[in-house]
Amino acid sequence: MTFLIPRKMAIVILTIAMVTFLSSGAAIHIPVLGQDATTGQSVEIDAALTEVIREYAELFNAGKTSALASELYLTPVLLVDPEDDRHVILETTSDVETHLKATFSQIKSAGWHHSTIHQQSVEMAGPDMAILSLVFSRNRSDGTTILLGKRSATFFLLKKPLGWRIIMACKEPYKEISDPAAMRERLTQKMRRYIELLNGPSPAQGVAEEIYQFPRISRSFLGERVHKCMLSEPEVLLGLETYLNQLKAKGMAEIRVHGTKIHSVSNNLAFVELISSRVLADGTPIPPADTPFSYIWVRKQSGWKMIATLAHGSAQ
Fold it and tell me: Nearest-CA neighbor of 298 among 269, 264, 263?
């Protein structure tokens, strides 16, 4: 799969072989070296991020829902379920714990004993975001598989002062991407249309109706970079119109794209990274220039929809 790698966007991927996580608490070694896809050189993955992966596996297999919800998730959390064509936002830590308890109730009733991770990768999206993708199976004590064999899970994490935290989770049956080229082309078209609408006469209304799906989460590059949930179209319209009006008051003539990268996770989920500037009529960028964003796209019955817009932050 070929991507356009924009300037200033470091793509780091760490791949790990099969690991079986048991609740015995046995030590698990996870390497902290990955590869920079732009240069092929080895680079260091944040050791704290690999520790989160290890801690998540151990807490999950021990069934410690309270610790998972309070220590590894950061609300609001976007929960994506492509099988049911739905996504929801868990607004509180209590909501996250309730969801985890329901998950354990379901898998334990099917005889779950432990989980086996067959493939795992970490992709850094800027200095304070990461995408964790894995292929796993849920097993009985004799090693046989429950719940339709292999599944895929994807987590989007933010780096906060207290460490890495999950703000999006998606689980679905594992399948190879059927047509990566067609998927990439369709998402490229959707991103192009997104920018066209933002530069058009009715940007907020156009984007809300044609691109977004609700509820959604967002993090602006303006002010304090805290992600938040936006549950309805009126709420999004107000926020987007306010943001665009602030920029137009500074003389913005258009939004100009410098680079795009598409990361297809499954047939139903993809991340798009885009670097853009807001420019004056003479092409001069309005500070800050070259701002990177990550966009989360989900395939719905109505087509591909954007459910998150997340500005990258700085290393902490």
Answer: 269
Euclidean distance between CA atoms 250 and 269, whole angstroms: 36
Query: At 210, phi and psi to the nearest 5?
Result: -105, -30
Do the domains at 11-173 and 180-311 have one common CATH topology?
yes
Which of these CATH numbers, 3.30.70.141, 3.40.50.2300, 3.10.450.50, 3.30.365.10, describes 180-311? 3.10.450.50
For 265, the enclosing helix (H) or strand (E) is none
Q: What is the mean pLDDT of residues 260-288?
A: 95
d(CA 109, CA 248): 56
Q: What is the pTM (predicted TM-score) of this model?
A: 0.86
pLDDT at position 107 is 92
Q: With the C-alpha atoms ordered 104, 269, 266, 9, is the resulting torsion angle positive or negative?
A: negative
Q: 136: which 2 tokens?
A: 């796993």
Q: How far is CA 291 from CA 115, 177, 258, 297, 302, in A?
A: 39, 30, 9, 19, 30
Question: Is 277 in contact with 292 (CB distance < 8 Å)?
Answer: no
Identify the CATH assignment for 11-173 out of 3.40.50.970, 3.40.50.2300, 3.10.450.50, 3.30.2170.10.
3.10.450.50
| Pairing mode of beta strands 212-219, 303-311 | parallel
